[in-house]
Write a structure and sequence with these properties.
Blueprint (H helix, E strand, L loop, with lengths): L2 H16 L3 H46 L1 H24 L16 H7 L4 H14 L5 H29 L7 H17 L2 H4 L7
């Protein structure tokens, strides 16, 4: 991989990781509800899940979508259904010690990693990384490098959203205000589905 292509990929990874999407919306909500420390497993799980997804796409899974386009459509709608379920859970969640709503708990490491496999934006990111930035020479080695770099760029950029959420905690001490915030995050999560359901193939 040439230095120019490497820098271009790092810019791609940064932009797609830091811009709004399902993962970052959930991290903002988690940071506000549970703080930075309790959200760390969620962040690390996203990075690992995305890295494994990039590896899988690079090592052959991406060709399945080219051969059977129906699988890609099925994935998008299964992912959309799961995101709607998560939005409903976020909207109903109260503070961890609030008895008026569902007792919330942050995403775990493995839960966050597994979520990437039904996250349409993660698939767009992985397919874009492999098809656009991975040279054919020494392809397997380049896939490994791309996957590792994606994880390295992804985690610190996502932390911006978690930290932003944690900084909001002092203004969300009222259960009513926190409930309103969670409803707002749920609506943003639903809004992130529009490009998927409108069949937009770009980044979210």
């Amino acid at each position: 991989m040439t230095p120019e292509l490497l820098l271009a990929f790092i810019a791609f990874a940064f932009v797609t990781s830091v811009t709004p999407g399902p993962n970052n919306t959930m991290l903002l909500a988690s940071g506000a509800n549970f703080g930075l420390r309790r959200t760390l497993p969620h962040m690390l799980g996203i990075s690992l899940g995305l890295m494994l997804l990039v590896l899988a796409v690079g090592l052959g899974l991406g060709q399945l979508f080219e051969q059977v386009p129906m699988f890609y459509s099925l994935l998008r709608y299964v992912g959309a259904a799961y995101l709607l379920y998560l939005a409903w859970k976020i909207a109903r969640a109260g503070a961890p010690d609030d008895q008026t709503g569902e007792r919330g708990k942050p995403f775990g490491f493995f839960q966050a990693a597994a979520f990437q496999w039904v996250n349409p934006k993660a698939w767009i990111m992985a397919i874009g990384a492999i098809t656009t930035y991975t040279p054919q020479d020494d392809f397997v080695v380049n896939v490994l490098c791309i996957a590792a770099l994606f994880a390295l760029v992804n985690c610190p950029t996502m932390s911006v959203w978690t930290v932003a959420g944690s900084l909001l905690r002092q203004w969300l001490s009222s259960p009513r205000v926190l409930r309103g915030f969670n409803v707002g995050m749920a609506l943003l999560l639903v809004a992130s589905l529009y490009p998927i359901l409108a069949d937009v193939k770009g980044t979210l």
